[in-house]
Amino acid sequence: MPAYKVTVATGDVAEAGTKNFISVTLVGSQGESRRSTASSFFLPGQEKRLSVDCGQDLGPIVLVRLHKWRIFLEDAWFCKDVRVTAPDGSLYRFPCYQWLEGVTTMEVREGSGKKVADDKLQLLREHRRKELAARQEAFRWKTYAEGWPRCLNVGSILELDSNIQFSCVRATNFTGFLILQGASHLLSGFLLRSTSWDSLEEMQTIFSRTKGRDIG
Question: Which Gene Ontology cellular component terms are annotated (predicted)?
Answer without folding.
Answer: cytoplasm
